[in-house]
Amino acid sequence: MPNVVVTGGTRGIGLAIVRRLARAGHNVIAVARRDSDELQHAIGEAGEDRLHFMAFDLSQVDGIADLAKRLRDHFGPIYGLVNNAGIGTEGLLATMHNSEIEALVRLNVLSPIVLTKYVVRQMMADGAGRIVNISSIIASTGYNGLSVYGATKAAATGFTRSLAREVGKLGITVNAIAPGFMGTELTKSLSEEARQRIAGRSALRRLPEPEDVAALVEFLLGDGGRNITGAVLTVDAGNTA
Prior knowledge:
Blueprint: E1 3-7, H1 12-23, E2 27-32, H2 37-46, E3 51-55, H3 64-75, E4 78-83, H4 98-126, E5 129-134, H5 138-141, H6 147-167, E6 172-179, H7 192-201, H8 210-221, E7 232-235
Parallel strand pairs: 1-2, 1-4, 2-3, 4-5, 5-6, 6-7
Helix pairs in contact: 1-2, 1-8, 3-4, 4-6
C-alpha cells in the first residue's frame, strides 16, 4: 500500500481525494489544521489502517521540515504528495490588507513549495514518487477580485513545470490539476445565479465536482500517469474550451 499525503484533506476537494485514494488501495494521510466530522466518517468507511489524520497548521512554515520527518518516521516512504491545501480569500488588490496578501502567498505558495522540498528529498532517495499540485483555471483566465489568489495558483503551475524537469530523471512525476469553479468552500460566496452563469459558459453546461478532480489524482498516481509529467490538466466541464 503506497503512502500518499494529501494536504487540506478534511473538506472540499481534499476530502474527495482522500476518500477516492483510500478506496483505490492507497494508505492516505490527510494533513490539515483541524479534523472534520466528514473526514472521521470517511475514516470509519475506509478503516483506520487505510486513512489517517495528522494535525498541522501548514502556515507554520518553520515546522514543515519536522512534519516531513514525522510522516516518514510514522508511515514509512511517501510515494505520493498532493498539495491541495489553500485559501481563496477574495478582495480587490487596491483595498486588500497586506496581512491577507501575505497569508494567501504563505499558504498557497510558500508552504507547498517547502513541504515538497522535504518530501521530494525522500522520493529522490527512494527513486520513485508522484507529486500533484492543485492549481486553478483562475491562474490562466483571471477573475475579478481574485488577483492575489490567481497569482498564487499561477505560481503552482510554474513550480510544477520546472520541478518536473529537476526530478524526472529520478523517476518522479510532477503535475498540476486546474479545477474550474465547483461547489466547494472557495466558491461558497457565489450566488446561485453566478453559478448558473458560469455553468452556462461551459461546454458541458454544468460545473465539475470535487470527485472529478479526485479521479484525476488517482489516475496520475497510478500506472496511467507514469509518463505524464510537467502537465497542467484542466477539470472545468469545458469552461475554458
